[in-house]
Amino acid sequence: MRLLVIIPAFNEEESIGQVVRSIKHAVHKADILVVNDGSTDRTSEVARATGVAAVIDLPVNLGIGGAMQTGYLYAYRKGYDIAVQTDADGQHDAAELSKIVEPIMTGQADCCIGSRFLERTEYRSAWSRRMGIWFFTWMIEWMIGKTYTDPTSGFRAVNRDIIRLFADYYPEDYPEVEAIMLLERQRYRVMETSVLMHSRQAGRSSITPLKSLYYMLKVSLAVCITRIRNVS
Question: How far apart are CA 21 and CA 48, in angstroms?
């Protein structure tokens, strides 16, 4: 099976090189795509300098949703069987990548999400972020009766059918929770597996406390709409 690791990146020049090299070291056969999301620093240059990643330069910053849809469209057109999303800031451990890919390769799931909280690990997040994760865990369980311990995790792998789905449509802003609801509505098999994650290795998160509130409101509304609309 052909595997593509998609890395959406916005102003991640300090970490992107190490992230790309660590993925190649951990999964030799994987191809790597960096979607440079309109960065104003040397993210694209550093990614290309690794010599092991393809790079797409978006002319403007589209946000995580637009960058990931670009990656899925690339994966679909190039005929990849599995696509993996991973962060450019070093939070996702490349050594854990095989844990989310294996259920896809064996046909156990259509989408596998790496969870920080399915089992106890050394990972610790800010109180405000944990509250947000708890809220969306509750919201999804309330709507569909299924528990996701880490619904905001962007460390996830999908099969060819979902690559095609996401190439056609992918939520725009803060898409992880809405994407879960979309897949559940279309009866895809989505599972979580426990993974080790780290704190951001470099740079600053774009999510401020004010943006966190906006994030919760916007995603909540989007999830409600996805739950009730016709998505078949």
Answer: 11
